[in-house]
Amino acid sequence: MINKNASKKVLIIGQHYWPETFRITDIAEGLVEQGYEVDVLCGTPNYPSGKFFDGYNFFNKRIQIHNGVKIYRTLEIPRGNNSNARIFINFISFPFFAIFHLPFFFFKKYDRIIAYQLSPVFMSLPAIILAKIKKVPLYFYICDFWPHSLFSIINIRNESLRKFITNFSYWHYRQANGAIGVFKGMQTRLVNEVGLPKEKTLYIPQAPEKVYENQESDTALKEKYKGSFNIVFAGNINPAQSFDIITQAAKIVRDKGIEDIKYVIIGEGMSKKWLIEEVRQLGLEKYFVFEGLKPVDQIPKYQSIADALIVGLSKSPLFEYGIPAKIYSYLPSGKPIIAAIDGEGGRLINAIGSGYAVDSGDINGLAKSIINLHSMDKEKRLAMGEKGRKYYFEHFERESNLKRLIEFVFNNNRIVDKEYPDN
Question: Measured on CA atoms in the order 152, 157, 163, 168, is the torsion positive or negative?
């Protein structure tokens, strides 16, 4: 039997891809599993450490094939020490060099082009240009909705500048034949603020990689962390993660005389140096363990040693309408979640009973949540975690969301999310 998707070819353009740990890798490989031919144009991997990954530089591994996906890498200036200046240079380097790479694709046939858009919004410019030149339908997969994502980190008060950045950002989204927002709030704003017709937008949650659905264990890790109450964080260490709230809550817990807690931090990012210094300043060195960046397939092993998983996020209007990606990757672990976040993510945790969620910035509430879980019977904690795992498979399972993406992008069929009304 002939696979009806075998002749369909898609080009994904975005700054980040494997071996950097972004969800687009799993989406691309999922498309290959469904019979699509997938090419990717991306940068040279250096996120979040700021240094090129081993084996990569300006000249090596410009073309690779990984799990059936053909990867074309353009030049990119690495983030270096993750200073504001280096991050800005890194931001503009990908679209700049990628535009010069576009002639390579002029004579290749694609049925669709997908712009994988994180920050900054203008990383999608090469996709817009190529789609217009080749007259190929362009779809946005939006993880960081601009300018709101920018404004949540940088407080820009000049109204004229805010208006310019807003108009500049919305222009990008208006170039798309369709736009997927990973928060419900993104899809709502694409309609109400950007002005896209509802039929050209869809909310699809960021279902995590299939590996997160596995409950794995590791003997060495269990031995290393035995005898302590382990609270695990896995992800990017940046200002949006509100580590200032987590460390202050940890200090309150310590001051209450609770000495057996370990905060196991997995990941890298621009705020890691600050976090290490903050931990030192607060006298919390014995409670925080920094494991560094780990491959995605290793994260379930770390979650297996967790008594709880923790997440904190800065205030953002987008979080009022959608669930952060970290919640999706935490739920299938079967471990309770401690959260200091606003909006839908916190509401969901409390509603299904999979942990404790307080408002973003609520230091005392976060500390109380940690103390409550620490004092709880292990069986009750596991029961909380299982509620989250069950809910995940009922609503956020990877295959169903991949199907919705395929139907929308390739078949113009909007399968509306069951959890939210189609505003």
Answer: negative
CATH of the domain at 165: 3.40.50.2000
Residue matched to tokens 């800005």: 88
Residue type, 347: R
The number of domains in the chain is 2
Q: Residues with Cβ < 8 Å from 219, sequence gap 6 or more?
A: none
- The pLDDT tens digits for 72-119 are 999 999 998 878 889 889 999 999 999 999 999 999 999 999 999 999
Residues in the chain, total: 423
Q: At what angle do helices 344-352 and 378-395 cross, to 10 degrees?
A: 120
DSSP codes joined into one string, 199-249: GGEEE---PPPGGGG-----HHHHHHTTTSEEEEEES--SGGG-HHHHHHH
Tens digits of residue pLDDT in 254-280: 999 999 999 999 998 888 999 999 999
- pTM comes to 0.79
Range of the domain at 73: 9-207+397-411
DSSP 279-346: HHHTT-TTTEEEEE---GGGHHHHHHT-SEEEEE----GGGGTS--HHHHHHGGGT--EEEE--SHHH
In terms of domains, do 161 and 195 share one? Answer: yes
**Under 8 Å between Cβ of 296 and 211:** yes
Q: How many CA atoms lie within 13 A of 283 on its CB side?
A: 6
Model confidence at 319, in pLDDT bands (50, 70, 90)? low
Cis amide prior to 147 (ω within 30 degrees): yes
- Tell me whether residue 375 is exposed, middle or buried, using C-beta atoms within 10 angstroms of its C-beta: 0 to 12, 13 to 18, 19 or more: exposed
